[in-house]
Amino acid sequence: MTDSPKASISSRRKPKQARSADLVSAILEAAIQVLAKEGVRRFTTTRVAERAGVSVGSVYQYFPNKASILFRLQADEWRQTTEMLVNILQDKQKPPLERLRALVHAFLRSEVEEADIRTALNDAAPYYRDSPEAHAARSAVDDIMNAFMLEVLPSVTDSVRALASDLVMTTFGAVGKQFSETPRTEEETHAYSEALADMLCAYLASLN
Predict the structure, then answer these.
(1) CB-CB neighbours of 191 under 10 Å
(2) In this structure, are 35 and 119 located in the same domain?
(3) Residues with Cβ < 8 Å from 194, sequence gap 6 or more?
(4) Each residue of 15-65: pLDDT tens digit?
(5) Which of 5, 8, 163, 178 is the most buried (most CB within 10 A)?
(6) Which ranges in the chain belong to alpha helices (H)?
(7) Are residues 38 and 138 in the same domain?
(8) Cα separation of 78 and 32, whole Å?
(9) Domain range enclosing 31
């Protein structure tokens, strides 16, 4: 019997002690391994427990169902992406387009390095994509990008700026997914990142 996609995606409880935190970390690491190897269709709490070397009951102490485990993995991914955006795009010591170029390189590199798990999480999206947490994560990314676009394009209309922001983010998602579907060398990733950065920077420069 599989878990329902409509079940709660919240963790059952938060680990308060170091031992509990270690257990949760072991469960999540096992979940990543199971998801990457088996895919979302064969992803179950039982397989995660077996890989982690713990009982299913131990898993259920913190995650009520497989959807909550998948959501936690995705939430960690969202947090890492948000931190990357903040660290790069809000670094005012560098010119805006230089920051965008750095973001392109960091983003594509992470897409290639974590291709298996990200593909699996995309397949698992129906379990959490309409959750309040998912909407909040997307809103946070939008806010960061909109603030950056206001800095890059201070003189254009709001509609032009919104279009530019949407185009850049859509391009990131589509290109990152397509590019990471094939194993890439470091040289290929760098060359592709440079080409994509050239294109996006030229587009934004043309709007000014």
Answers:
(1) 12
(2) no
(3) 101, 105
(4) 566 678 899 999 999 999 999 888 888 999 999 999 999 999 999 999 999
(5) 5
(6) 18-38, 45-52, 56-62, 66-89, 96-113, 115-123, 132-152, 158-180, 186-207
(7) no
(8) 15
(9) 18-62
